[in-house]
Protein 1
Amino acid sequence: MAEIVAMKAAPEGPVTSIAKDGVLRLTLSNPPANALSLAVMAELQAEFDRARDDKAVRVIVLAAEGKVFCAGHDLKEMTAHRADADRGRAFFEQTMAACSQLMQTIVRHPKPVIAEVAGLATAAGCQLVASCDLAIASSEATFCTPGVNIGLFCSTPMVALSRNVSRKQAMEMLLTGETIDATTAREFGLVNRVVPPEYLNQIVSKYAQAIASKSPLTLKIGKEAFYEQAEMGLPEAYEYASRVMVENMLARDAEEGIGAFIEKRKPEWTGE
């Protein structure tokens, strides 16, 4: 596969973008909080939308600059709109709609998304981690849903959180607002692995390259099927998954992959 020419957002942009060897790396670049303002969410949404139909991109890594992965919504931006005639209702609705769209875009995106978490992920930042398909965290990373501490329950982060960890563990985080360390986050199921800070980027890159080497069609089929069946009852899930398996078996990439396995050679994917 040809190497993709590196791309970067403008220096003043809230998100930087670099693509190489099938991996698109999106970095939140508005420290110290890397807050999800409307501008940041719009830029992230645009990057994910562009990557959807870019055949050169097979995996997306979501990272951040600084000591905070993401502090959630920009509370200063939201508070400023309390001076509006409607006390901020329209702006709050716009913010929540943009956030919900972004999180669902990540879950429904045809490309696998890996969160690389080096620092604090709080509130909607924790939601962002939970929405990604995989999450690799530094041993120094921390996580929390602290809205309850300021009179604002983390209701939308709750959606992603409760689909990753058990109900008791989700409620523990949501009701106490306390911060958990990376090891606890792994035990809860919020992250896949916890690694030394100095090896975080290297290990995430290893995961990304391993996934990027697979058939892009198979990744798309599998990711979509995983989230679809998860919302179904057992009989419906097996019926649905069986249909998906048959269609996947008929794909050219499956024919090539099985043939390559039998012939003991490296497969050549076409995405068909």
Protein 2
Amino acid sequence: MTRKQITRLIIIAAVLYLCGTVVSLRYRPELDGIEYEEIPSIEYERTLPRHSYKWEALETYQGKKSYQYDNIKAKWGIDVSKHQEKISWQKVKKDGVDFAMIRVGYRGYGNGAIKEDSTFTYNMNSANRVGIDVGLYFFSQAISVEEAKEEAQFVLQQIQGHKVTYPIVFDMEFVAGKDRITHLTREEKTQITKAFCEVIEQAGYKPMIYGSRHWLQDVITLEELSDYEVWLAEYSDVPSFPYAFKMWQYTDSGTVDGISGGVDMNLWFVEE
């Protein structure tokens, strides 16, 4: 084999390797509905602002994280739904919880019907009564801007008469093999997110977007949603998400007095 033939084979092999790499990088869970947490995020050049948290200041004691650095201090909170069943909010307060994100409702991933969380009213009234600050989230399976607006209006109707001091959060997620949103494009999911947040903001509340690192970086276009704060879900000792976020959900198996079983735990970063 001549040197020219060897060179040509090397070039062909290199091209085939690169093509295979590109294919793997373009793989997305939207194609088959597998859980997005299993797919690593692929980083590329972004125009998003980065956070300035110093993780050497992050401390963990008995599963509860705390953070204070310079003028930033984190408040400690939980997020709950009917899955936590009946909560003793007085005990939760005594255990040191500063805030709670309460699920107001959800759209079913099967028939698409909107339902109120069966513990919403109890949780709202009880948390308010013991002096725990409250925010809300809605689990979305909207497949259009119109459905997203419908979800936001539902939330606004349900919270009438309740005290809400933390954001109202749009929580859209894949449900492996079952969800309504797998076929949506990245731009469609981004516009649906924006539509929900716009309705909430127009009503005088602070909207927020929930998602894992993969969801925030690869599934929606966060640059188009830069007006809204981010609630990051990343179950790790230190988050790897490099961009600005206001709240961090760091575990789904925390323990809090007054709650049976595991509960999601969060830090809310506040500038003092």
Protein 3
Amino acid sequence: MPELPEVETVMRGLAARLEGERIARVAVNRADLRWTLPPGLDRALVGRRVLGFARRGKYILMRIEGGRTLLWHLGMSGRVRLAAPGERVEPVPHEHVVIETGSGWRVGFVDPRRFGGLDLIETDSEAAHPRLARLGPEPLDDAFTPAVLSAALKGRRTSIKAALMDQATVAGLGNIYVCEALFRAGISPRRSAHTVAGARAARLVAAIKATLAEAIAAGGSSLRDWRQANGELGYFQHAWKVYGRAGEPCERCPGPPRCRGIKVEVQGARSTFYCPRTQR
């Protein structure tokens, strides 16, 4: 599933082209994706100006005139297809919703497995939406500090990997970036969450912020069918230090026989990649 860097990349791509545009046409090609689409979605959007974009966790928020917000969730296979005015657009399967602006920009929401979704909500009550209400702090905000993370982990006996995957702990992280951040922080994914406090929490917060910032700068990680809004691949997968590298040497280790390389094991039905020697 696209994680925070991928969603942020798509959001920025949409914002750069659509902010200030007026929606001229909307085609809804099926009534449901992961959930039932709002009835009358086309009528609610047509004629409205796009005021701006934001991201909350793994969700994109497109704010429009009239005090409403179109919430986008890419799910596991969803992607946004953006075409410039006058650009030839070839038909593709599974393009479920299409939005066109008065100046000719075209945005298609493509989702073969239909695990993504769209919803229309009141802008003033975005934070109360069921899919957003329980989300934890945004990891790139200044308000996400070691003290905040320590407080969220206090008394929790689950693994730190599981705690970070919980969107109520911190919003937007998933398997790839949790593995990468824990490696950078030198913290074992198996460590009990309540022991990550003080200096460990400080290292982890810094590692999370740095990992996400680098991933966003690289356009995210292209895994399977994910692409940016302009159709380009992300490149952060080439900078992965542990994810997907089981059995390969760890860049911090001297190699055999003292280190046997990056290990993979299953935690919570997800593959966890880490270096047993440097992550404690």
Protein 4
Amino acid sequence: MDDESTSPVAVSGEPNSLTGEWARVRAFVARPRLPDPVEPRPSRPVVALLRVFLLDLALMATLATIAAIVIASGIELPESSLANLAVTPGLIAAILIVAPVGEEIAFRGWLSGRKRDVLACVVFLGGMGATAWLGASDMTGAAIWSIAALIFTLGLTAILFWTARHRPSMRWFAGLFPLFYWLSTLAFACVHLFNFEEGALFVLLPLVLPQFVLGALLGYMRVTYGLGTSIALHALHNGTAMALVALATVTAS
């Protein structure tokens, strides 16, 4: 019989070590499923966030090493259109706040399979579309209406997510969860193809493999520990990437 004190996963089902968390991620990716409603929700999301962030760093370092080997072999890869953007407070806010919040709601907010979470995503996307339309309109008072639409959208979205947190998932959704999980992960990766202005599809697809891997980790965090943890992991990932690019720029100059 295994000694409980040496097991990477506690009796309650919560990983009690870094390797235990990573093993849980691996098991989830191999067989995606929504948590059983009767299972107690993990109680240490911050610890899990840091553990999965370390896994993210390890995986990204591995992919970066492979990319460096490919480049060293003489193969020229398309450059991202984001590489030459000037670092401004607005860009930093977009990378650290807007993108993590917006993309997590759009791609993974609904992955819980709860009705109100799905409704929250619809409200968010519709409201942000209305906000953008009003902001670009030349109608009188468009700016005020745009701000009002933004505040209303964010408020209603937050309320829906908050009130949905203890509700069960839809049964049919739980049965199709593996399909939804991989579709959301693939869609998240493919959206980042727009970061490249040129290049054949078969060349560009491997370049969004980091986003595919990240999407798989974010999906795990969303359904296991909640939407807030997937947003936080997304922000940590983006912040680390931005810091490394800034460091490389300074070193090169």
